[in-house]
Design goal:
single chain; two-stranded parallel sheet; about 5% strand; Rossmann fold
Length: about 280
């Protein structure tokens, strides 16, 4: 969601000061009204890799499909407009559960492969793939996990109680720092949001609070729940779909100490040429 201009508070986007100290790429690439995809992102950031004259890029994030697309490319068939219209009609008439049931009917394990099985955009894309004779978005037919060699992906892992406490603190901080005001301002500029942006964790809940669909406390609680679910799916995805070396953090060490441990893994496993870059 960092690709969206103006969606800053709910994505913990780097501040102007931070971006002045370190060059950032891959953020602020689209308006909330625009749909966005992993393939579009890879095409946008590839020039940054080619332009680096010294040092190495550091790719940070938890969106597994984007990282795999960067390392190994994508094998996704073109969308069928008729199929998309059909499934969007099902969504409008019967909601997300109908899409989930349709997906399960075609592939009993499909929801296990999706990064966010509550996201209607991902559900529709998975159904489109199956209609076209492929696998789900995150697990294409005929392809196993990307054959990552080195550098291995470093996964940061903190004890579950620490993670849950930090998630709650972050959700409360987002709303305290003006997330609802940010949503109001963005809605004034972009009355219609893409399915991608509209489903963003925190933004959907802030919008529901603004529209009277839930209380502020409920919006925060729902944001906490969705973030915890996402964190669990991310850990599961990286554990099964990629070559990960886990760095267990206590949650009390300094950022410098943790960065040093990550760098140790880089020194051990070395660099590799990213395919296609």
């Amino acid at each position: 969601m960092l690709v969206y201009r103006g969606m800053d508070i709910g994505t913990a986007k780097p501040s102007a000061v931070e971006r002045g100290a370190v060059p950032y790429f891959g953020i602020d690439l689209a308006d909330p009204s625009e749909p966005y995809s992993a393939g579009t992102w890879v095409r946008a950031v590839t020039p940054a890799f080619r332009a680096l004259s010294a040092g190495v890029p550091i790719v940070v994030g938890g969106t597994g499909l984007y990282i795999r697309a960067l390392l190994a490319g994508l094998d996704v068939p073109a969308a069928d407009s008729e199929a998309r219209t059909h499934w969007q009609g099902i969504l409008a008439a019967e909601g997300v559960p109908a899409l989930q049931q349709a997906l399960i009917a075609r592939d009993p394990h499909a929801l296990d492969h999706l990064a966010d099985p509550l996201n209607p955009r991902r559900l529709i894309r998975a159904l489109e793939r199956l209609d076209a004779g492929g696998g789900t978005v995150e697990a294409p037919a005929g392809r196993g996990p990307a054959p990552l060699i080195a550098p291995r992906i470093v996964g940061l892992r903190v004890p579950r109680p620490v993670l849950h406490r930090r998630i709650r603190e972050r959700a409360e901080r987002m709303f305290a720092n003006g997330l609802a005001e940010e949503v109001r301002a963005l809605r004034a500029r972009f009355p219609v949001w893409s399915d991608t942006a509209r489903a963003a964790i925190g933004y959907a809940e802030a919008a529901a609070w603004i529209d009277g669909g839930m209380t502020r406390a409920d919006a925060i609680e729902r944001t906490v729940i969705r973030t915890r679910q996402l964190a669990k799916r991310q850990e599961t995805w990286f554990r099964h779909q990629t070559s990960v070396v886990w760095v267990d953090a206590t949650g009390s060490e300094s950022a410098a100490t943790l960065a040093g441990r990550v760098n140790e893994q880089w020194e051990e496993h070395g660099a590799a040429t990213l395919r296609g870059l």
